[in-house]
Amino acid sequence: MDTILSIAGVSKTYGSGTTALSPIDLDIAKGEIFALLGPNGAGKTTLISIVCGIVTPSSGTVTVMGHDTIRDYRTTRRIVGLVPQELSVDMFETVLATVKFSRRLFGKSGHDAYVEEVLRDLSLWDKRNAKIMELSGGMKRRVLIAKALSHEPDILFLDEPTAGVDVSLRRDMWKLIHKLRAKGVTIILTTHYIEEAEEMADRVGVIAKGKLMLVEEKTELMKRLGKRQVLVSLAEPIRDLPPELADWDLTLEEDGTKLRYVFVSEDEGIPALLAKLGSLGIAVTDLETHRSSLEDIFVDLVSAPGELA
Fold first, then answer.
1. CATH architecture group of domain 227-291
2. Rounded distance between C-alpha atoms, residue 57 and residue 21, angstroms
3. pLDDT, position 292
4. Which segments constitute the ABC transporter domain (predicted)?
């Protein structure tokens, strides 16, 4: 793995004694999309703020492309772009001036063609001369993204980038992420829209109560912790499960008219179950299948963190 970001033993305890982050170790590969999931107050924003040099860690080190974020702050900050949760723009400035100013802050000048490309990608070009105070909430969020991209960062942090925005921005955002990734940009995002992480991410990290509970390839995580369910509709209700069905993990539901069967992805027990039901004279009228989503797995993990292996 060609590591672009390395977090080693990073923790944060505030003066009040509150521990926001327990020691965390995490390496991010160049060009990957990494999703950091966790409930409110889990430590996601604290970790991002430490990497971006906004918050000083209590312990540990962060290196970006081999540069320490504290000793080489200016260098690492140029490498990183951040889209924060909160709006932080001059409401009386125009969109174009805001993005160009942000670009110059990082020592970049000129290259108007690049700024235009970013604004067009975010459907902001027609609003380039509008003052930010005149924009809708969704458009203001687009301006934050344009600012973060203004200096052509190698790593882009997206802290809840689509929270509370319309479907149009969400679609533009994910199109842009695909485009950035094709250029080799590394993307780290936190999101409450877990279906987006499920669709976009290569790896997933789950954080709760300041502890990084799990980091795993998304496909492997869903294979290892995911489950499938089949809801079997019966032609006639049954009062109790026959003892002949003890080999299957079944529950009787809806006044005996449905059987729920929970199994792992590779299970081959459905044909045998249906055959057994037929031999018992239990007629089946319908089958409904459900596969665990990343959200299902996430909820299970954060609701019972002590049980995680």
1. 2-Layer Sandwich (3.30)
2. 9
3. 62
4. 5-234
Residue for token pair 């997206």: 158
Q: Flag whether pLDDT at 305 surpasses 60.
A: no
**Candidates 3.40.50.360, 3.20.20.140, 3.20.20.100, 3.40.50.300; CATH matching 3-223:** 3.40.50.300
Q: Give the predicted TM-score (pTM) of the model.
A: 0.74
Task: Compute the average pLDDT of residues 227-234.
Answer: 83
Indicate if the pLDDT at residue 309 is higher than 50: no
Average pLDDT rounded to a whole number, residues 145-156:
92
Which amino acid is residue 42, in one-letter code? A
Which tens digits make up the pLDDT trace of 177-188? 888 888 889 999
Convert the pLDDT of each residue in 186-196 to its tens digit: 999 887 667 77
Task: Look at residues 129, 134, 183 and name the one whose alpha carbon lies nearest to residue 155.
Answer: 183
Distance between CA atoms of residues 32 and 38, nearest Å: 19
